[in-house]
Amino acid sequence: MWATAVGVARVRALETERENALFRDPLAQAFAAAGGLWPSSPPPGDEAAQRRRSAVSFSIVIRTKFLDDLLEQASAAGVRQVVLLGAGMDSRAFRMDWPEGTRVFEVDTAAPLEFKASVLCRERAVARCERITVAVDLRADWPGALAAAGHDPAVPTVWIAEGLLIYLPEDAVELLLARISARSAAGSRMGLTLGSRGVIERFGADAVPGSAASMWVSEMPDDPVGWLAGHGWEADSHTLRERAAAYGRPISSPPQREERPGGLISAVRR
């Protein structure tokens, strides 16, 4: 599944080239090129598939900006521990301005971390914080591995699960959230992206086997704010449409249906 992370890097590389980019990710092109996704692969002949691909790319851009902002706000509030779950080709440790003393833990399986390390070495990339990689499967005892790497649950943490939960069955999502909550001191923050209701039906029904959409298995609860409150988090839910408009990238097409709570989630541990 980590090849999907290289695809995300390609989207971020394309955004970085825009004059009015919502963020700059200088390493994204290197990740995409090393993974065989640069220059861009030819577009499929299927116009519907192309529209779906564009929609997914747009959502990646908006969620990246959303989580960048959340991390900046957490840093401004004094949080100095960051945990990126399923980190993939995330380069925030290298591209964001971190306050002194910030520690960024990147949790993922060994294969993507090794691929990433090879690219970072070739690019001579230097992290702007203390960067700690934790090679562990999220289906295993990742909390133990994170603790062994030096994570301190007694002080606030900002947790990021970007483009991750949609690949996990509901019981695994619940377990992940329970584990996060058990290691989150008061004042911790969390940024999640959740599959919006109906997204699997719209994108996964005719997805190519092995593609990202073919592996999507879970959507967000009907009431994500209430769901997170049950785990001890005070959450806000945002739709892609409202965040895109706020960032100056309004979606021109009207909503297909009455828009439900959105899949971009920011939360604070009380």
Unreliable runs = none
Number of helices: 10
| Share of helical residues | 40-55%
Kindly estimate the percentage of residues that lie in beta strands according to DSSP: 5-15%
Name the shape in a single word: globular
Specify the structural class.
Answer: alpha/beta
Q: What's the helix-strand series?
A: HHHEHEHEHEHEHHEHE
3D structure, described in words:
With 270 residues, this protein is an alpha/beta fold. Helix content is 40%, strand content 14%. It has 10 helices and 7 strands. It has helices at residues 3-16, 28-34, 47-76, 92-95, 110-123, 142-148, 170-182, 199-204, 224-229, 240-246; strands at 81-85, 103-108, 130-135, 157-161, 189-193, 233-238, 264-269. It has a 7-stranded mixed β-sheet with strand order 3-2-1-4-5-7-6, with helices on both faces. Helix 1 packs across helix 2 and helix 1 packs across helix 3. The model has no long low-confidence stretch (mean pLDDT 88).
